[in-house]
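Homework help board

Subject: predicted structure for assignment chain

Our instructor gave us this sequence and asked us to write out the predicted structure in token form, then describe one feature. I got the tokens but I'm not sure how to describe them. Can anyone check?
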Amino acid sequence: QVQVVESGGGLVQPGGSLRLSCAASGSISSVAAMHWYRQAPGKEREVVAYITQGGRTNYADSVKGRFIISSDNAKNTVYLQMNSLKPEDTAVYYCNIRGETMMIDFNSWGQGTQVTVSS
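My token output:
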């Protein structure tokens, strides 16, 4: 069983920065990709960014140029550096990690971490 735990959320003023972390633990053979999603009140969950094991990244248009996703493959950890935060970035942020454990594919989610951007 693979467990995923996020950390780093909180309250920040507009224009500020936060760094989210997410670590996967368990009998992980390989990780294919690590995603960050977010869900704002009354809205559907959306992909914010993802990074593949090979280091390829992709971002939602709404965060391009402001957010940076990175990973430490040796630690099965992914980060999301969020800069120039806006009130519309307020949401619960979820980490999703996909890979293989004991010859079985896994797709595991964290519990979410609240990010609130407000003055």
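Reply (TA_rk): Your tokens look well-formed. For the description, you could write something like this. The CA atoms of residues 29 and 46 lie 27 Å apart. That's the kind of observation they're looking for.
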